[in-house]
Structure formats: C-alpha cells, structure tokens
Amino acid sequence: MKKKDGILILTLLLVAVLSWATIQGIHLWQGRQIPKSGETGEDYSQAKEKDKTGRIRITVGNHVLGEYSLGMDQTIQIGETNVCEIKDGKAVMTQAECPDHVCMMMSPIDSPYDMIVCLPNQVVIEGLPENQNDEETALDGVS
C-alpha cells in the first residue's frame, strides 16, 4: 500500500467519524435521542404526544397580541391579515394576506422555540418553553 492510499483511507475515516459526531451533536442539541438499532424511537414520540400543553405567543410588529395554550383547539384572528389555528396541540397559519404565503407553508408549532413568521405582515408566532412564566426565566442575548 502506498503512502497516498493510507492518507486517503485516513481522510475518509476522519470524515465519516466527524459526520457521525455532527449528527449526534445536532440531535443532542435539539433534545432528541437517536433510536438505537432495533428501536423505533416511539418512546420519544409518545412522550412528545403526551405533552400537548405547550403555549405560543403571537406578536404583531412590536406588540404582543397574546399567549395561547396548545392544549385548547381554537382559531385566532390576527389583525385583518392573518389567521392562526390551534388544533391537536399544533399551531399553524391557515390564512394570510401576503404575496407569497410562505408562513402558511411553515411547519406547525408543537414545541418550544418553533416559529412561524409572516414578514410582510410582521406577524411572529413562537413556541414558548414550559417554564417561561416571567422575565427571569426567559432567554436573553447571553444565554
């Protein structure tokens, strides 16, 4: 085996290890566990399904419209431009008067820090963490 072949093999091995570590780190950062071989990951899904009592905050411009529970199905009129629907523990933008409707195509909010944004109408819907009851527990620029 030539020296260049050995370097190539070590480089490929290093790339594979770094890729694996990156994927593990992303899942750890997002609070997920990767199912081990033979497992289906149902424990994580079932735990997430049980906790449907999260909350969202709707902001228009710099004004907070309100905070709403994901545990109660409801339809929220946001000004004259947008409509948010909460159903089965998930919040989605169902109607928007903007040119591209990107906000209506965003993933539903069902966990903390998820977000739907309608830039033309300055509407932000964000998932709130469970323990955010006051300013002391909220994230700031340093956290």
Main sheet specs: 4 strands, antiparallel
**Beta-strand percent range:** 25-35%
Looking across the biggest beta sheet, what order are the strands in? 2-1-7-6
Q: For this structure, what is the CATH homologous superfamily of the largest domain?
A: N-utilization substance G protein NusG, insert domain
Annotated CATH topology of the largest domain: mini-chromosome maintenance (MCM) complex, domain 2
Question: How many β-strand stretches?
Answer: 7
On the 0-100 scale, what is the average pLDDT? 80
Structural class: alpha+beta
CATH architecture of the largest domain: Sandwich
Rg (C-alpha, Å): 21 Å
Q: Shape from CA axes?
A: elongated
Structure summary:
This protein has 143 residues and is α+β, with helices and mostly antiparallel strands.
